[in-house]
Amino acid sequence: MFSRWQNNNAICDAVGNLSQLSAKHKKLLISDDKDEISKAHKIWRDMAECYWEILFAILDAKFEKMPANINFDEEERLFIDVGYLNGVLDINKDFDADKFLNSKAHGGIFPVMTFSDYISYQWSLIMGAEPLKSPIGDDLEGRIKTLTEDLEKVQTDRDNMLLKISESYTNQFNLRQGISALDKNLMSMLKYLMRVPEYREGSESFRQQIANERKYYNDAESAVMILISSAQTASENPLPSFEVERFKNIHELTKVLGRKILYAQIDKRKIKRNADKIKEDCRSLTPGMKRGVLREMLTKKREYMAVPAKNARCDQTLLCQPDDMPIDYAKNSAVLEKLSADDIEMFNGPRVRMYGIPTVIFIPGQGLGTYDWLDNSLLIPVFPLGGEEKSLAYALGTFRWDSDEDLKLRTPYGQIKEYRRLSTIAMAQTFYRDYSIYMTREKAGYRVLASNVHKVFDQILKYRPEE
Fold first, then answer.
1. Any residues with CB less than 8 A from the CB of 420 and at least 6 apart, and which?
2. Rounded CA gap, 62 and 269, in Å?
3. In terms of DSSP H, where are the helices of 169-240?
4. Termini Cα distance of the chain
5. Does the pTM exceed 0.85?
6. Do residues 133 and 165 touch, judged by C-beta distance below 8 A?
7. Digits of tens for pLDDT over the chain (467 positions)?
8. Is 370 helix (H, G, I), strand (E, B) or coil?
């Protein structure tokens, strides 16, 4: 039972119903009789409905006085975000509730929140208030700060590697000056290529300054690449190929992190615009109508929260799995950042330019991640099936397919001989699968996909600077 709601009849009744069903389920599940086990499975499906009954009962209680913001305590967060209710439902014996509740997501390009954060955020906007900070995810400024720190670390590694290489091989230009030009002018080079609003809307003199700084960067990069090439072909002690590859990967990562910073900065306008729209739409509504708006949002979200289980063809309940351990927010958000770095082109589509970077919402339940186009969010189940990386890659795959309004992705993929006769739905499902394989196993060096499918992914996921 929830400690703070022991005197709330609606919540007590809903929890009592779940508790009775849970007790029956545990008793029938240990039986050897097939009929008993069949009854247990039916009761489990009935228990799944209790999640939403209890959630709406809690929200009704919280919204009675129409607060501008709502906070969820630890018991409520565990139930809403994991589907766990102490004393009623079982979870993995090694589950550390305190550690889970105090864990933080890795800062990066994606806004990250839990399902309880999502509810709190939407209610604040409906009430016209400033949303509370998510307990697990950084705000936009925090994410940009983390990305900037990551970029500075990678630039330092790249620069130190260059200096070490130069000690063994002669070069014809001032390396330290070249390194400084790379570090100082990276963002200007990317602003020019990406045609960011700051560049497009700037004065003529500002645009000329950006163009000049882009040239400084390109000149320095060309000189550095000549140094690397000379070192690789030196007659004595040539630079090993694996060191050349390592340098190129680190150098490319500086560009990827720079792009992420710019994408996040561009997103600031869209976040404000989307929030302002909800506030304006709900400004003149009565309290009852405002509660109805949130309930409608959650009803629509409920439909998409069932998709991860459908994708994995597994149980659709949002209650916790007795033997499984919920995912680690920091680990999963870090993996998501790595996957997005390997497919940076995903942020260069019409959907992102219009609605912004999708929000990552960790939801209760099991299955494979998915994309909800209704509110531009990636839904990541806390009990993934088939591995955490697969679930995350699957979510990005659904986003890539659904956001492909300009058909840069669907057209070449649909021309693969084996897939030409597939229906639209079947082709989408096949793409999700192939994309997750390409982004995980194939990126790790395993060749799983057919060669023609692999070549198509090499083509469609190649980064193309915005022109």
1. 414
2. 31
3. 175-194, 197-200, 204-232
4. 58
5. yes
6. no
7. 788 999 999 999 999 999 999 999 888 888 888 888 889 889 988 899 999 999 999 999 999 999 999 999 999 999 999 999 998 998 998 999 999 999 999 889 999 999 999 999 999 999 999 999 999 989 999 999 999 999 999 999 999 999 988 887 666 568 889 999 999 999 999 999 999 999 999 999 999 999 999 999 999 999 999 989 888 888 788 889 999 999 999 999 999 999 999 999 999 889 999 999 999 999 999 999 999 999 999 999 999 999 999 999 988 999 998 888 999 999 999 999 999 999 998 998 888 988 899 999 999 999 999 999 999 999 999 999 988 999 999 999 999 999 998 898 999 999 999 999 999 999 999 999 999 999 999 988 889 999 999 999 998 887 655 44
8. strand
Per DSSP bridges, beta strands 112-114 and 377-384 are: unpaired
**If 0-12 CB within 10 Å is exposed, 13-18 middle and 19+ buried, where does residue 306 land?**
middle
Q: How many CB atoms lie within 10 A of CB 270?
A: 16
User: Closest by alpha carbon to 2, among 93, 102, 84, 122?
Assistant: 84
Rounded alpha-carbon distances, angstroms, from residue 6 to 11, 12, 14, 288, 460: 8, 7, 12, 25, 56
Cβ contact 71:94 at 8 Å: no
The Cβ-side half-sphere exposure at 41, using a 13 Å CA radius, reads 8
Tokens 């004065």 label which residue?
203
CA dist 252 and 246 (Å) reads: 10
How many residues comprise the chain?
A: 467
Residue 379 and residue 327 in contact, taking contact as beta carbons nearer than 8 Å: no
* Cα separations in angstroms, 180 against 113, 174, 221, 271, 440: 38, 10, 11, 34, 35
